Amino acid sequence: MGDLVAFQCSRQLLSFTRQVPTHKTLWNKSYSSIKVTRRGKPQSTEFIPRRLNFVVLSPVETDQRVHNRSVRDVRMSNESLPKKDKDPSFAASSFRLYKQLTNWATLLYPIWILAASLLALFRPSLFSRVSSKSISWALSVLMFSVGSTLSLKDFIPVLKTPLPVLLGFIGCYVLMPFLSVFISRCCNFHYEYYAGMILLGCVSGGQASNLSTYVAKGDVALSVAMTTISTLASVFMLPALSKLFLGTVIPINAIDLSKSTAEVVLAPILLGMFLHSCLPRLMYILEPALPLFGVVATMYCVVGALSKVQNLILSNVGVLFLPVMLLHFVGGIAGYYIPKWLGLNEKVCRTLSIETCFKSPALSYVLATKHFSAYGVRMPSAVSILVLAPLAAFYSVILRFLSVRNENN
């Protein structure tokens, strides 16, 4: 007998409307097997369409069917994955938890700084091996963490509107020196304390102000520009101001200052900006932890500086604590409300406030030790090392919790 082919197939007539202007279509195919036998033995099995339906669906029904099918496909594909990867949002939830933890650790910035200050004040022997070179490296880490959050486009508004930079310069070299003179005369300080307060009010801004600006949701690019300009300008401004208020010239080595500024401030910031533009995915992952790196670097700088002047602080903190606190606090308040009165936006006002109050007490202490033989001249700078870091940390965190209004003005 010849080959016997058995076909089992059912067909259904097709009916459809030619014009379906506003509906989507969905073709539904089901299959039936055709068994091909030879001499009563099955040889192969093939499949041909058994039923071909033309279904007219509304857009809502179509989207619902596609959605159900997608959900079913995801569930089926997840069966072969490890348990932790079955949830498509596992990576997102983990990254969200990581951001929350680093954010809370950063918001405790004042507590970490205050704890480090007290530890260095009452247990200075723990930090006896902290050297000036290691403090410079810690400052470089701090500047790198700040630069990693920046790009070149962040500096465009700074170049277009030089008024905030000019106000920051005036606050650093006009407002703060005259404020230090006013407070010293109100407190009737003798010459040593008077000279120390003037020196503290005339030095450039501190590098840790960039971290405080970032925590306070200020303009970090503006903060970096102002810190760099005030540091370089101190070569000319500090001798002039010391001659005006103290009658003596305090020389500044321009070459050494420019070199240290380039190494400690500019190079780490440029490196961070380069990585931010070349490795965006890596920096996106590291960005939540970058402020925490800056906090750790700031703590290291604080304990390194305080442990070396612990005796000076404990012997003079009662007399100088309030005047030094007023110098930084009043400077910060004036640095906020004067730009606000001039119509600048909230982020710029916060930045100018922090930059105005944030001096460099470590620099003024070194200058007082080098150029004045009187022991009391270095006292205000030593007390400022204790006062400034916790004060700026608390102030920046308070600003962070306040809403940033008029951001685009």
From TrEMBL:
Compartments it resides in: Membrane
Q: Which InterPro entries match?
A: BilAc:Na_symport/Acr3, Bilac:Na_transpt, Na+/solute_symporter_sf
Q: Where is the region Disordered? A: 68-88
Q: Which residue spans traverse the membrane? A: 104-122, 134-152, 164-184, 220-241, 289-307, 319-338, 382-402
Residues in coiled coil: none
GO cellular component term of the entry, any: membrane
Q: Could you list this entry's UniProt keywords, alphabetically sorted.
A: Membrane, Transmembrane, Transmembrane helix
- What is its membrane topology? Multi-pass membrane protein
Q: Does the keyword Transmembrane apply?
A: yes
Family in the record:
Belongs to the bile acid:sodium symporter (BASS) (TC 2.A.28) family.
Question: What's the protein called, per UniProt?
Answer: Uncharacterized protein
